[in-house]
Each structure stands twice: as structure tokens, then as C-alpha cells.
Design a protein that fits this description.
The chain is mainly alpha-helical. The protein has 10 helices and no strands. The termini are far apart.
Length: 219
């Protein structure tokens, strides 16, 4: 796979100066020292005590990224977004999701999250450049896909899910477990618009869509 050589994607760190959780402090220190395995252990320990702490989740996402655990990192960044009302933290989480996806050349979903970050941080010139780069690469990718679409249509099984698709599916499973079928359906459909490998979960999408229709009819 061809990798970029002239463009750098930054992973932002948000340590916070008023961390009370002692295990989070130890995790932050380990991260700063480059000991990511220890940081991961301490962050998970901190989350056992404070499972909805968005800042701890965000820092864990950075740590998992450093360890190459991309699918889990994306999932954790999404959890961080869901547990905070802080627009800055949400923007940074979207930026990092977009960064991770861009590093893996998943341009369409990368573009989506970088755009979401820019909507909250419109003066971020680096974010603007990153978004425009992802947009360009996504456009190139779409052109290539259209050229091959006719000959491949209905001849191949759904592609294996990307790390992004897997992370989205886990988020949707969580929503389904809370009986939030409409939210789960919207999440999967939005992801499908930017990542065709979400088609791997077509049967799941159809199932929750059917349940959602029944619930709406009953209400």
C-alpha cells in the first residue's frame, strides 16, 4: 500500500491540568515518557473508577493509536465524544479519528470526521489543510471506484469491513442494546455513505431497520 511521504498527520494530546484520578495521572506520565503499554494499563484502570470520563477516554484513544490498535482507538475516541458537551474535546476527537483513518488511507470517513472537527474549530489552518487533502484523495478514490463499479457489480461478495466499519458496528451494537434502533440505523447508514465496507453488515442494517419500522408504526 502506498503511503504518504510529504504530508504529516498530527495526533493531538489533551492531558488536562486538573486530573484528580491518580491512575489517570500515572497514565499521563507514562504516555509522556513514551511507555504506551503502561499508559494503556493505567488509563483502563482509571476508567474502572470513572467510566464516563471523556478526557481519560480521549487520552486512551491516543495511547491505543500509538500502539497500533486502530479499531479500538476509533471506538474510544467516539465514546469520548459521546460523554462530553465540550466542543473543543469533541473537535479534537473528530480530528484524531480523521487522522487515524487518513493514515490508513480511508479517505471518505477521514474527510467526514475532519470536516466535523473544522465545524467546531473553523480557524484551525492545519485542520483545514488536512480536510482539503482528504477531500482530494477521497475524490480520486471515488473516480477510481466508479471506473470499476460496472464490471464488479454483483460479482463479488461484500468487502471485508475496515477498522472504521468495525468500530461503527460496535457503536451501533451498543445503541441496539439500549433499544435505540433509530439511532443505530442512522449511524450505520451515515457510515455506509463514506465507507463501502459497511456493506458487510447489510443483514444487521436490514434487521435494525425492520425493528425500527415496527417501533415507529406502534408509536
Amino acid at each position: 500500500m502506498h503511503k504518504m511521504t510529504t504530508f504529516t498527520w498530527a495526533i493531538l494530546l489533551f492531558l488536562g491540568s486538573n486530573v484528580i484520578n491518580p491512575d489517570a495521572r500515572k497514565a499521563n506520565k507514562s504516555y509522556e515518557n513514551g511507555d504506551y503499554e503502561s499508559a494503556k494499563t493505567w488509563f483502563y484502570s482509571a476508567l474502572d473508577q470513572d467510566p464516563n470520563n471523556a478526557e481519560i477516554l480521549f487520552n486512551l484513544g491516543n495511547t491505543l493509536t500509538k500502539l497500533g490498535e486502530i479499531e479500538e482507538a476509533i471506538k474510544v475516541f467516539m465514546q469520548a465524544k459521546s460523554y462530553t458537551d465540550d466542543d473543543l474535546l469533541k473537535a479534537l476527537a473528530d480530528y484524531n479519528i480523521g487522522t487515524v483513518l487518513a493514515e490508513n488511507e480511508q479517505w471518505k470517513p477521514a474527510m467526514k470526521h475532519l470536516r466535523a472537527s473544522l465545524q467546531k474549530l473553523p480557524l484551525d489552518s492545519e485542520g483545514q489543510f488536512n480536510y482539503e487533502y482528504a477531500l482530494m484523495k477521497a475524490s480520486e478514490e471515488e473516480d477510481n471506484n466508479e471506473k470499476n463499479q460496472d464490471q464488479n457489480e454483483n460479482q463479488e461478495p461484500p468487502p471485508k469491513p475496515s477498522v472504521y466499519a468495525k468500530a461503527i458496528k460496535e457503536q451501533a451494537d451498543t445503541l441496539v442494546n439500549k433499544s435505540l434502533y433509530n439511532s443505530a440505523l442512522n449511524l450505520m447508514q451515515e457510515a455506509l455513505e463514506v465507507d463501502e465496507t459497511v456493506r458487510y453488515y447489510d443483514s444487521f442494517i436490514s434487521r435494525i431497520g425492520a425493528v425500527n419500522q415496527i417501533e415507529q408504526a406502534e408509536n
